[in-house]
Amino acid sequence: MYPADLKYTKDHEWVRITDTEARVGITDYAQKQLGDVVYLELPEVGRALKKGEVFGTIESVKAVSELYMPVGGEVTAVNAALVEKPETVNSDPHNVWMIVIRLPDPSDQDDLLDAAQYEELTR
Questions:
Q1: Containing structural domain, residue 40
Q2: Is residue 112 assigned to a domain?
Q3: What Rg do the C-alpha atoms of the chain give, in angstroms?
Q4: Taking 80 as the threshold, does the pLDDT of residue 2 lie above it?
Q5: Euclidean distance between CA atoms 57 and 108, whole angstroms
Q6: E-strand spans in 47-118?
Q7: Which of 15, 20, 65, 95 would bridge 70 by S-S if both were Cys, CB 3.0 to 4.6 A apart?
Q8: Would 42 be classed as within a structural domain?
Q9: What is the pLDDT averaged over residues 105-118?
Q10: 34: left (phi over 0), alpha (psi -120 to 50) or beta
């Protein structure tokens, strides 16, 4: 159910890591728990964030939740289209990224979960 090419956090964010950057979004589990997403607040490009730091908020008809950095890095892109249409998260959460970050420390990803571990967590 969860894509094998992603890594996951216990806070229900996913990260797709390449050599020098990472795309970040929320998992299908998270969007189902939230319900219909109506608002999204994301950081500005250029902001440096540490692993575990709040990088934004997501609001649904049920709740407002904070978004946490799965790895540390500098924000190099923000999905502006998603801010305009936040409900897009509900339709395809594992392909809808929120931010892209430059990865200064690859070891930040050592404690992320693989798909099987994340699926076990969400049972």
A1: 7-103
A2: no
A3: 13
A4: yes
A5: 22
A6: 48-49, 54-60, 64-68, 73-78, 99-102
A7: 15
A8: yes
A9: 90
A10: alpha
Q: Answer whether residue 108 is part of any domain.
A: no
Task: Write down the pTM of the prediction.
Answer: 0.94
Count the domains in the chain.
1
CATH of the domain at 64: 2.40.50.100
Number of C-beta neighbours around residue 89 at 10 A:
23
Query: What's the CA gap between 43 and 57, in Å, rounded?
Result: 9
C-alpha distance across the termini of the chain, in Å: 12
- In tens, the pLDDT along 14-40 reads 999 988 899 999 999 999 999 999 999
56-111 pLDDT, tens digit per residue, is 999 999 999 999 999 999 999 999 999 999 999 999 999 999 999 998 877 888 89
Task: Please tell me whether residue 45 adopts helix, strand or coil conformation.
Answer: coil
List 71's β-bridge partners, or say none: none
Token look-up 């575990």 returns 52
